[in-house]
Specification:
disordered C terminus, Rossmann fold, 9-stranded mixed sheet, about 20% strand, about 290 residues, disordered N terminus, alpha/beta
Length: about 290
């Protein structure tokens, strides 16, 4: 299926089937005219379609984008519940490889970057550590590690990491839509996420510790932080970047003046051009052998 607003931002919807039979749709936006594509991981609970404005803006600048759909969200045929549970291991070992294989088949002659928003940025970093040769570079937007000590109200955040797994275990899934945080998430995802929030270290059930793997990534990395983002403060981003010491990192702070609107965790999605311009510039510079940056 294909639709478009213009020739440079044509959208192709590609079905993706993980090895365990889970299905979802991958949205391919544009063509890699500059020899670069970006595989984008959404924030927790956010359907892929909400990033179409970002993808279309990047496509207009020659950067093709593939929008990943998290299991349990949007086009996914799975929904978290008593009979359906999964954690980071499934997302990293089943779903991401299936989606990336589909993109590599569609755009075999271009270099693939991995990027994401919030939790998507975190898992992009984790995957790049596990498969460093498969990722040409990383892009993080409004992201950072969830370690409770790095937030303005640390004890409140720490309490949330204790309550969230209990709530998910009680309901059969985490009722994010009902409480206004995230989506309806699987119990395993919430356990893995809350563990990283409590300990400051990344680990997953069935995989063990992941921090040591993250240290292996040595490619370019662009991190864009929103000035008024209480969900992604400076200390949170620093904690995440500290886990990738070999990366060639460029960090940039975006203000309301830069964004022509609020500089918080989600508002940039409504007018993504300022973010897209900086991301496209970083990918172009990396292709020319320069350091990433706007």
């Amino acid at each position: 299926m294909e639709s478009s607003r213009n020739d440079s931002s044509a959208v192709r919807v590609v079905p993706v089937v993980a090895s365990d039979g889970a299905r979802g749709e991958l949205q391919l936006v544009g063509e890699p005219r500059l020899g670069r594509w970006l595989y984008w991981l959404p924030a927790m609970g956010v359907p892929a379609r909400h990033y179409l404005p970002l993808a279309e803006t990047l496509a207009a600048q020659g950067i093709a984008v593939a929008l990943h759909e998290w299991r349990g969200i949007g086009s996914s045929n799975r929904r978290a519940g008593w009979r359906q549970d999964w954690g980071y291991r499934v997302l990293l070992h089943e779903d991401l490889p299936a989606g990336l294989a589909a993109v590599q088949a569609a755009w075999p002659d271009a270099a693939g970057w991995l990027g994401g928003h919030s939790l998507g940025g975190q898992l992009a970093c984790v995957y790049a550590g596990l498969q460093p040769q498969a990722v040409a570079g990383l892009v993080l937007v409004a992201s950072g590690a969830p370690y409770w000590k790095n937030f303005r109200w640390p004890w409140l955040i720490g309490a949330a990491y204790a309550v969230a797994p209990w709530l998910a275990a009680t309901c059969g899934h985490f009722p994010g839509r009902r409480i206004g945080f995230g989506g309806n998430e699987a119990r395993g995802v919430i356990r893995d996420w809350a563990r990283s929030g409590r300990t400051g270290r990344y680990a997953a059930e069935g995989m063990g510790g992941l921090d040591a793997h993250m240290a292996a990534f040595a490619g370019p990395l662009l991190a864009l932080r929103m000035r008024d983002d209480w969900l992604g403060p400076a200390a949170s981003l620093r904690w995440l970047l500290h886990k990738l010491p070999q990366a060639s990192t460029a960090c940039h702070l975006l203000t309301p003046q830069d964004l022509h609107g609020p500089a918080d965790h989600f508002s940039w999605m409504k007018n993504p051009e300022p973010v897209a311009v900086r991301v496209a510039a970083a990918l172009r510079a990396a292709g020319e052998g320069s350091a990433p940056g706007p």
